[in-house]
Amino acid sequence: MPETELLINEEQALNRLMRFLAVDGVTGEEMAISKMVERDLVEAGIPRTDIMTDETKEKLKEEHEIDTQVGNLIVNLPGTYKAPRLLFSTHLDTVPLARGAEPSLKGNRIVSNDSTTALGGDNRTGVAVLVTLAATLLDYKLPHPPMTLLFTIREESGLWGARTVTMEDLKNPVLGFNVDGSSARELCIGAVGAERWEVEIQGRASHAGVHPEEGISATIIASLALADVFRNGWFGKIKKQGKEGTSNVGVFGGFDRLSAGEATNVVTEYVHIEGESRSHDARFVKAITKAYREAFKKARERVTDNKKKKAKVEFTSRLDYHPFRLKENSPVVRHARNAVETLGWDLTTKIGNGGLDANWLVRNGVPTVTFGAGQHNIHTTEEYVDVEEFYEGCMMALALATYQAKK
Question: How many CB atoms lie within 10 A of CB 347?
């Protein structure tokens, strides 16, 4: 049967995943998990000279004033024969909700013992898949082309690792396979693009009981703007003139992300709001963000003090990631379809509504598809990993890595 042509050591793979899940590594704090992965790779037989940490840490600090503990972890494996280089990627970090998770195996699922935390299967399943791939290739001396394993940082806080990595450090791979999701039998060949925006409203404080007319309420300006956005159909799921997208307001607060305002008897002086716009159409992403910008601009004009002075409203936005959509007959999709035939599986494709490291890898010239490895209910306290699906993720990676050797 095709399923017996490739094998992994399931016990070792599961033990590896349990170890990785037990290590904290929320976005921006990936040092401990990076060191553990490096140790496991060396123990599997990867020479230390083939493992490097890139300069993403330094770049993020210098160019974006973003602190992080470590750069992307990159492993460059020489092939056993001459062929175009393949890239396998995943991200090291988890969402903050997974801090302190204690993984526990219950039947065919891995869950968190603490009901107040997420598990971190997003994306420790991917990390375990890539390390298992490297170990399996060496253990069974399987033929394979030159390969690069990329473990990115800060995926959860903006895909920063994939955005910043250089193709030179990756040794210019031609096809990419990203591990991030639930099913190995479902291939994500496209994803939305997104912008993140924020607005600062600087009003004027005054005594709300004695002289409210002397104040300029930042809270009211924000409320009017958001009500306008909602009323005109620019919040949540958006459909306009045949185009679709989504938007959200995620942060609404004051100084240092504390409450907006300090007391009921003081007109609110300052409000800070953060949100996002998403669509598969890059121009529509910008249209959504523009709708928010215009709403805050109009709201500013409507609220003044008794001297007709207005608040200061500063609205800024930045690209988070570009949308992409690969063709069904593109080389990377064909490679995946051919590889799964060796496993006897049926493969389906989908377009995702969330950002992936693949968004930036594709943008930087590496056609990349994404498959899963058993993670479910991610970013929630109900998160779990399906062990059989995790094994399938490992098998999928192995099939993708060794397929060319069979041609």
Answer: 19
The tokens of 73 are what?
Answer: 């972890």
Look at residues 161, 117, 168, 132 and name the one whose alpha carbon lies nearest to residue 18: 132
Count the Cβ atoms, other than its own, within 10 Å of residue 363.
16
Distance CA 365, CA 354 (A): 20
Q: Two tokens at 371?
A: 């498959």
**Residues 166-225 pLDDT 10s:** 999 999 999 999 999 999 999 999 999 999 999 999 999 999 999 999 999 999 999 999
CA-CA-CA-CA dihedral for 185, 158, 27, 181, to nearest 10: -10
Give the separation between CA 285 and CA 275, rounded to whole angstroms.
12
Alpha helices in 184-343 (DSSP H): 218-231, 282-302, 331-341
| Residues near 256 by beta carbon (within 8 Å), at least 6 away in sequence | none
Cα 173 from chain centroid (whole Å): 21
Q: How far is CA 390 from CA 52, 207, 243, in A?
A: 26, 60, 36
In angstroms, the CA 236 to CA 245 distance is 8
- Whether 151 and 123 have beta carbons less than 8 Å apart is answered as no
Contact 351, 325 (CB under 8 A): yes
CB of 369 within 8 A of CB of 205? no
Bridge partner list, 194: 278, 321
Instruction: Give me the phi and psi of 85, to 5 degrees please.
Output: -75, 140
Give, in order, the Cα–Cα distances in Å from 285 to each of 192, 318, 362: 9, 11, 18
Q: Is 196 exposed, middle or buried (0-12, 13-18, 19+ CB in 10 A)?
A: middle
Q: What is the DSSP letter of 266?
A: B
Please check whether residue 252 is in contact with residue 270, taking contact to mean a CB–CB distance below 8 angstroms. no
Q: Is the peptide bond before 123 cis (omega within 30 degrees of 0)?
A: yes
Report how far Cα 14 is from the mean position of its chain's Cα atoms. 24
What amino acid occupies position 354?
Answer: G
Q: What is the pLDDT of residues 332-387, one digit of tens each?
A: 999 999 999 999 999 999 999 889 999 999 999 999 999 999 999 999 999 999 99
Q: With contact defined as beta carbons under 8 Å apart, do 184 and 389 qualify?
A: yes
